[in-house]
Design goal:
heterodimer; A: about 200 residues; alpha+beta; Ribosomal protein S3 C-terminal domain; four-stranded antiparallel β-sheet; 7 helices; about 20% strand; rod-shaped; B: about 170 residues; about 25% strand
């Protein structure tokens, strides 16, 4: 294709020349069409358009990723491989389960929670309470491989004082998991704290 | 755009695309899973224990109200006047509600209602049926707000009362 303008006369030069002309001559100035600017100028326009489009696309993508990052929950900000450790898998859930069940279990129509309160009021009830709870744990306490005979310890205390009763199969201080529950004492006195310690 | 400008632009573009690809593809990370679920479960069990606490407190209140006159055997409540039992039980129970439930777990902030309506629903010679209801038990942690209804209903039988008498009455009222 042949061009209608001399090579040296580019669009910018034309514009400069035209802007210097008297205003009455400038009113009908129009940019030269693509047809008259040559192949190189067309390609340059095309490349600039493609770059601009790509740039906008990239910016949009970055914005989308950033928005997703802020909306995901803690610890899961990014996609990809996540090495997860489950919160409290061994502690507390099993401990809470056993201590709650133990306190609600009845022996002779009386719950262990009541029996614990009887021990506080009358220490003479301690042996009976220990025997009942020990049997309950032996029959019910299972960990991991579903084999009975896990290691456990129960203590009863009132307020911040030293426990008034401690018993169980735990003999070494290697406690993996502890949990406790508050139960009322007889006569409206200071509540009792029943603490269960479990280990492997 | 001149050639140098294009080259600079391409370099910047490549860096941005690489960054976006890395982010989009993902970076390996280690996360702790299920902490909120575990806290929700703990809050639930703590609220259950609070409800159990007041149910036991109501039972002990009946024991104490009965122990002044109650007998042993199958008709241990026969000699108890119903109105006296109601009044004395409520009075005893107030000591527990004023004290409130104090969790042994410091992770939780537990609020229990101060005003719990305790009703003796039925008194027979061999048992007393009781019911308690109050506002919500509220268990709060940093990321969990759990509320549970405070309602309980149970019986005190002469067998249970007899156990109390044998195990603790003499010491409690010594």
């Amino acid at each position: 294709m042949t061009t209608l303008l001399p090579k040296a006369l580019t669009e910018s030069k034309l514009k400069d020349t035209f802007s210097a002309a008297p205003s009455e001559l400038r009113s009908d100035w129009k940019a030269p069409s693509a047809m008259v600017r040559g192949k190189k100028a067309q390609i340059e326009d095309l490349v600039e358009f493609v770059f601009a489009a790509m740039l906008m696309g990239v910016l949009l993508l970055v914005a989308t990723v950033i928005m997703n990052l802020t909306s995901l929950p803690d610890g899961l900000e990014l996609k990809g491989k996540i090495t997860g450790t489950v919160e409290d898998f061994t502690p507390s859930k099993a401990c809470d389960y056993y201590v709650m069940n133990m306190l609600r279990t009845e022996s002779g129509n009386v719950t262990f929670a009541e029996k614990a309160a009887y021990v506080k009021t009358n220490p003479g009830n301690a042996d009976s309470f220990k025997a009942n709870v020990t049997k309950f744990m032996a029959d019910n306490y299972r960990r991991y491989d579903n084999v009975p005979g896990g290691i456990w310890q129960i203590s009863l205390s009132s307020g911040v004082t030293k426990p008034f009763l401690v018993f169980g199969t735990l003999t070494v201080i290697d406690v993996m998991d502890t949990c406790s529950k508050t139960i009322p004492s007889l006569g409206g006195g200071e509540p009792l704290i029943v603490r269960l310690a479990l280990t492997e | 755009m001149n050639k140098k400008g294009q080259l600079d632009f391409i370099i910047v573009l490549v860096i941005i695309i690489a960054f976006v690809l890395v982010v989009a593809k993902g970076v390996d990370t280690t996360a702790t899973l299920g902490s909120k679920q575990t806290n929700a479960l703990k809050a639930y069990t703590e609220a259950e224990q609070a409800r159990e606490y007041f149910k036991l407190a109501a039972r002990y209140s009946i024991y104490s109200a009965t122990s002044q006159e109650g007998g042993l055997g199958e008709n241990c409540f026969a000699v108890i006047n119903s109105d006296d039992l109601r009044a004395q039980t409520k009075s005893n129970f107030r000591a527990y509600t004023e004290q409130g439930y104090v969790s042994s777990n410091s992770d939780f902030n537990i609020t229990t209602p101060e005003d719990i309506q305790l009703n003796i629903l039925k008194k027979e010679n061999s048992f007393v049926e009781y019911e308690g209801r109050g506002d919500f038990i509220s268990v709060n942690t940093a990321d969990i707000n759990y509320t549970a209804n405070l309602y309980f209903k149970d019986n005190v039988t002469c067998t249970q009362y007899g156990e109390f008498v044998q195990a603790a009455k003499s010491k409690l009222f010594a």
